[in-house]
Amino acid sequence: MKFQDKVVIITGSSSGIGKAIALRFASENTKIAVNFKSNSRGAIEVVEEITKLGSQAILVQGDVSQPSQVKKVFDAVINAFGTVDILINNAGITLDKPFLETTKEDWLQVFDANFFSTVLCSQEAVKIMSQKGSGKIINTASIRGIEHTGRQGIMAYSAAKAAVINFTKTLAKEVAQNITVNAVAPGFVYTPNYEAMPKEMTNEFIEETLIKRFISDTEIAEAFIYLAGANAVTGEVLVVDGGFTLK
């Protein structure tokens, strides 16, 4: 297998897209660090599922928006597996709030979770990958970070994901030629978040795609697998949105 024995860190992998990515890499006989901030129950279940698939996994708790905890996460992975081959920056949150009601603290919270976590984890990964002369960094962006598709109500999230996209492209220049840096920009992926939305809104989202359906988290995971194995692709954003951004 292409990724056999590769060491993969996936931040925010106790549920949702992060979980799907972890399980997809587990099918490749990798060694996976499942990171979580507070969802310990979900993270434990992910580790158990990874083990059933025949891969190794460790549980690493840590708020990856905080430098000291990022260091703790990477130290734990190095102690367990000796290196890091692939970093997937997936941790993030959204905040649904009208613009005029948002505070600076709201914006900082969203940027910490989505953007600064990506920066901090990438710094630690680059230190390791530069020494070994190889590595892959893949960031979870969003269609909301693409220049014309930010959405009112989640403006801080949209801006943070736009920052992730710019960071991805710029870091790719900084760490070439042995480390590749890319991003995946998911479209409407069905997660529990949508269950709290009015049905009319979710139907509107689906109608705005060309494929007229939600994207599955396993389809998003395949995009990460592709970029992890693509040695000639760097600084790119792979949009998986069912044609939404074509409109």
Could you characterize what this model shows?
The chain has 247 residues and is of the alpha/beta class. The protein has a single domain, classed as NAD(P)-binding Rossmann-like Domain (Rossmann fold). It contains seven helices and seven strands, in the order βαβαβαβαβαβααβ. Strands 3-2-1-4-5-6-7 form a seven-stranded parallel beta sheet, with helices on both faces. Strand 1, helix 1 and strand 2 form a beta-alpha-beta unit. Helix 1 runs parallel beside helix 2, helix 1 packs across helix 7 and helix 4 packs parallel to helix 5. The longest helix is centred in the middle third of the chain and has 29 residues. The radius of gyration is 17 Å and the shape is globular. The N and C termini lie far apart (38 Å). The mean pLDDT is 95.
List the main descriptive attributes of the protein structure presented here:
Rossmann fold, 45% helix, 7-stranded parallel β-sheet, 7 helices, 247 residues
Spatial strand order of the main sheet:
3-2-1-4-5-6-7
Overall CATH architecture? 3-Layer(aba) Sandwich
What's the rounded overall pLDDT mean? Answer: 95
Helical amount among residues, as a percent range? 40-55%
Regions with little confidence, pLDDT below 50 for 5+ residues: none
SSE pattern, N- to C-terminal: EHEHEHEHEHEHHE
Could you say what the CATH topology is called?
Answer: Rossmann fold
| Beta-strand percent range | 15-25%
Oligomer: single chain
Number of DSSP-assigned strands: 7
Number of DSSP helical runs: 7
The general outline is globular
- Major sheet size, sense and barrel closure: 7 strands, parallel
Q: What structural class do you assign from the helix and strand content? A: alpha/beta
Number of domains: 1
Q: What's the alpha carbon Rg, rounded to whole Å?
A: 17 Å
